[in-house]
Structures are given as C-alpha cells and as structure tokens.
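Continuing the series of single-chain predictions for the mutant panel. This is the parent chain; the variants come on the following pages.
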Amino acid sequence: MTEDNNVNNERRIFIRHPSDVPLDVRLEDASTPRQESLSNVSAGGLTFISDAPFTNGSTLIVRIVLVSPVFEARGRVVWCGEDSGRYEIGLEFIETKDAFRMRMVEQICHIEHYKKEIRAKEGRSLTGREAALEWITRYAGTFETTTFGKADK
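Parent structure:
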C-alpha cells in the first residue's frame, strides 16, 4: 500500500466532530500554546486545523479547556496536509488511556455544541444538565454505533 493510501485509510477512521471546539496545542518543549480548531476524533487520536504545519513525529500537548476537568494529552503528529493555506494535522495519542478519556470529552463537546445549536435555532437557553439530558435522549443510542470511525466508512 502506498503512503497516500495509508494516509487516506488513516483519515477514514476519524469521525465528524463539531468544529467549533477550541483546542490548545503546543509542542512538547514549548511553553506557549496555539489555539486551534478540533476537527475529528478517532479511537486513537484526533485531527485539528492549524494555520501552521507541524512536522511528522513531533510530540504535541493538546488541551480542551471547554470541559471540566480540562482534557490534556500527549500526541504524536502522524500526518500533516495543506488545504487552501491551512493545515489539517493528524495526531495519535501516545498513551492508550487518553483515547478512552477522549471518548468522554467527545460526548461533552457534542452536548456543548447541541446547547449552542438549540439556542441559535430555537432561542432556548439550556443548562448543562438540561442539554445533556436532551442530547442523551436524542442521540446517545446512535453515538455508540457511530463513534470512532464507524460512521464514515
């Protein structure tokens, strides 16, 4: 299999994710993070959109501060592709436990996105608990079967 096919297959295991979730990203040996946009989540990592490229093999620290406690994990850049002057970065988690923690963060991000969507579409302001209960009722049954790549295959 060619490297391009490997990248395409690797990208196929990622699922769609609300793109308005901010992600703090920094090189492991740097002190200042960049705010990027989370793009997709997979069983073993994530992708994000950046204005700057990252070198394959670089170790990054990623944080999602939208959730409490803050999600933080170390990852390794496995691919970087340019599109219209922006870069899509594929990151694999270094520690397996981070993939399991990311699943919970993913659900929280979907609930936060749902909360914003309901406010915009229906004018209703939901508390975190109300949004979670509605989202779980509407989507939790399908979330299990569509997460970690199954939806995009």
